[in-house]
Design brief:
391 residues; alpha+beta; Immunoglobulin-like; 3 domains; 20 strands
Length: 391
């Protein structure tokens, strides 16, 4: 009986040894985790079938999703098996890459912001500088802006500038600015502008104080509407310049505060200084509108000298159309109506000499043809017309 039990024990031990030698024990079989790690190692080694999200989960690795698995596998494929043979190594790889998200779908067009004012007002012939616009897209960030449209600063009107922006998805936005070019109004008189065909300079289209541009009907206009006012040199707009203003023998005190009477009986109407600087002002406080001033002798002379014989008065070739102005005399305040001089233009400049005289430009006409055009200096108490040039 004891012999039989011993025999059974020996037999059982032998079977166990045989199974162990053949690897047949189920306790040593690869686990699911080990299989998953082995799959990842194999992919790194030879680029076999790519691991799935479930493979990484089975391996005990977190953070791998359908959104980032392609990126993770691409990195693993370029590694070697020893670099991904532990859970820690694989997890560090995933942690380093982070979790990518699906880019949001852009459904919005760019937002355009116009720089500066809208509408934007500009005085006739003043410089216009395009301020542009910026655009921002919720997804793409700053977007380029295309600007179309033009402004003719020498023509009164309303102009439209259009700004266009398009994002990467093709969404387009537009915005517009209105630029309003307004006529020039100064001391209650409206002016236009003309551009010299000789120098490109911009001038007012009429003399200061004139209500219209001179034309061939001038000689039939009883009110001399195209001639303008008669200023004593360097003086402000105070009423003295009007054709019918009263006269006085009392000299003025200052440039800007000398009453409204035309000073007679003197070579100069005041002893005030800085008259050249005052008439050179282009801020509107002098006799010219904002951005305009009284021209120098050279500026006026170069324009008139280029006129060919017959074009400074009122013909279509005369861009200045000064008109036969005549003049107001400084010694008695009367107008010079002699036949020879009623067909003459006398225009002040802002250039003076050292003897207290100031230069004017004289043009004598026979009919509408220039018989003589020259520079002379004149006493400052005389009344002459003024044509302003852009500063």
């Amino acid at each position: 009986m004891q012999s039989s039990i011993y025999t059974k024990l020996v037999l059982a031990s032998s079977i166990a040894l045989i199974l162990s030698a053949c690897g047949g024990s189920s306790s040593n079989a690869n686990t699911t985790k080990e299989q998953a790690i082995n799959h990842i190692e194999t992919y790194a080694q030879n680029g076999a079938t790519a691991p799935t999200v479930q493979d990484y989960t089975n391996a005990g690795v977190t953070g791998v999703t359908t959104a980032n698995i392609a990126n993770i596998n691409e990195i693993v494929e370029n590694l070697t098996a020893p670099e991904v043979d532990t859970v820690e190594e694989i997890q560090n790889l995933v942690n380093t890459q982070g979790t990518t998200t699906t880019p949001p779908v852009n459904q919005e067009a760019p937002v355009i912001t116009i720089n500066g004012k809208n509408p934007l007002y500009r005085q006739l012939s003043s410089i216009y500088t395009e301020l542009g616009a910026t655009a921002t897209d919720a997804i793409d960030g700053p977007v380029a802006v295309t600007t179309t449209g033009n402004v003719d600063r020498h023509k009164v009107g309303t102009y439209t500038i259009t700004y266009t922006a398009q994002d990467k998805e093709g969404h387009t936005s537009t915005a517009t600015r209105k630029v309003i070019v307004q006529g020039i109004v100064h001391h209650g008189v409206s002016y236009g502008t003309v551009i010299s065909p000789h120098t490109g300079k911009v001038w007012l289209d009429r003399n200061i104080g004139a209500s219209k541009v001179c034309d061939s009907d001038y000689f039939y206009d009883a009110d001399y509407a195209c001639i303008g006012d008669y200023y004593q040199w360097g003086r402000n707009t105070d009423g003295h310049e009007k054709r019918n203003s009263p006269s006085t023998t009392k000299k003025g005190k200052t440039i800007t505060d000398s009453g409204n009477k035309f000073v007679i009986g003197h070579h100069d109407w005041t002893s005030a200084t800085n008259r050249t600087q005052h008439w050179a002002a282009s801020d509107g406080r002098s006799i010219c509108p904002v951005n305009f001033r009284v021209p120098t002798l050279q500026e006026l002379k170069i324009e008139v000298d280029k006129i060919d014989n017959s074009t400074m008065l009122v013909s279509s070739d005369s861009f200045l159309k000064l008109g036969p102005t005549g003049r107001r005399l400084g010694h008695n305040g009367e107008y010079l109506y002699e036949e020879r001089e009623i067909f003459a233009a006398f225009v002040w400049t802002n250039t003076s000499d050292t003897n207290g005289n100031t230069y004017i430009y004289n043009s004598y006409f026979q009919g509408f043809t220039i018989a003589a055009a020259y520079v002379s200096n004149n006493i400052r108490s005389e009344g002459h017309t003024v044509r302003c040039i852009q500063h």
